[in-house]
UniProtKB/TrEMBL annotation:
Subunit: Heterotetramer of 2 NUBP1 and 2 NUBP2 chains. Interacts with KIFC1. Interacts with NUBP1.
Species whose genome carries this gene: Ascobolus immersus RN42
InterPro entries: Mrp-like_CS, Mrp/NBP35_ATP-bd, NUBP2/Cfd1_eukaryotes, P-loop_NTPase, YlxH/NBP35
Subcellular location: Cytoplasm, Cytoskeleton, Cilium axoneme; Cytoplasm, Cytoskeleton, Microtubule organizing center, Centrosome, Centriole
Keywords on record: 4Fe-4S, ATP-binding, Cytoplasm, Iron, Iron-sulfur, Metal-binding, Nucleotide-binding
UniProt GO molecular function: 4 iron, 4 sulfur cluster binding; ATP binding; ATP-dependent FeS chaperone activity; metal ion binding
Protein name from the UniProt record: Nucleotide-binding protein 1
Length: 266
């Protein structure tokens, strides 16, 4: 059984692209690792895999071990990452595959990766409710994920996309751990005051409407993007150390506390 050594599985979903789903996946992984957990990150965003870039591991490749693909170990090995990005020859390549090929790739990602023991496996999914989501839902018929973290932005809440995502979860009987509202306000680097540029609070209202938990608001922090862009295969130890100094670290410490509580309560 490929998931037998994995204690908890969490999916990260978003109704639309560009809302910060990959950033939330990365920060969830970093904050869980900061609490001493062994974390795996599975990137099934086949058309736009961004995990190699997020973890500064674009030059790494995955190799085949005796028990399957060996995920890329980041820093001191507290985080392991598997992404289609590691298998593409040219990292700028994108994959245009039809449904059956995507399904086969996802099945392989779910069965052929030698993760070793993990406390948490975080799965970064493509935006929307596409073939990949249906495949992943099918893969998990026996091993149910603990649930999904749904990411939105204040603007996206105004659209039907989040609603669609939450309805999708209901349809495939996916437990929703909660909603994260990303890019919710801007923290001034000079005075640390938070300004609500795009309005905020919509995620909370949506969470109430669907009877799911609101996990928290994540402000826009330009330093986060800089931190990601300037790391060059320095590994997660330094990324983790840098992240601990980031203004978003306390925000995600609270979010991951709730994720842990909810996963352990299951
Ligand atoms: N809270 C934040 N503060 C500052 N920058 C952010 C924040 N969240 C996301 N970003 C930046 O916004 C951009 C888009 O984020 P990200 O790649 O995480 O979105 P996504 O939803 O995964 O996108 P896609 O749908 O293309 O996969 C990135 O450059 C990221 O660094």
């Amino acid at each position: 059984m490929p998931f037998e050594d994995i204690k908890h599985i969490v999916l990260v979903l978003s109704g639309k692209g560009g809302v910060g789903k990959s950033s939330v996946t990365t920060q969830l992984a970093l904050s869980l690792a900061a609490k001493g957990n062994q974390v795996g990150v599975l990137d099934i965003d086949l058309t736009g895999p961004s995990m190699p870039r997020m973890f500064g591991a674009e030059a790494k490749t995955v190799v085949q071990g005796p028990k399957g693909w060996l995920p890329v170990s980041i820093g001191d090995g507290k985080i392991k990452v598997m992404s289609l990005g590691f298998l593409l020859n040219d990292r700028g390549d994108s994959v245009v595959w039809r449904g059956p090929k995507k399904t086969a790739m996802i099945r392989q990602f779910c069965t052929d990766v030698a993760w070793g023991p993990l406390d948490y496996l975080i799965i970064d999914t493509p935006p929307g409710t596409s073939d990949e989501h249906i495949s992943i839902a099918e893969q998990f018929q026996d091993v149910k994920p603990d649930g999904a973290v749904v990411v939105t932005t204040p603007q996206a809440v105004a659209t039907a996309d989040v609603r669609k995502e939450l309805n999708f979860c209901k349809k495939v009987e996916m437990n929703v751990l909660g909603i994260v509202e990303n890019m919710s306000g801007y923290v001034c680097p000079h005075c640390a005051e938070c300004t609500n540029i795009f309005s905020s609070g919509g995620g909370k209202v949506m969470a109430e409407e669907f009877g799911v938990e609101f996990l928290g608001s994540v402000p826009i922090d330009p330093k986060f993007g800089q931190m990601i862009e300037t790391q060059k295969d320095s590994g997660s130890e330094s990324l983790l150390e840098q992240y601990k100094k980031s203004g978003l670290y306390p925000v995600f410490t609270k979010i991951s506390d709730r994720v842990i509580e909810k996963c352990e309560a299951k």
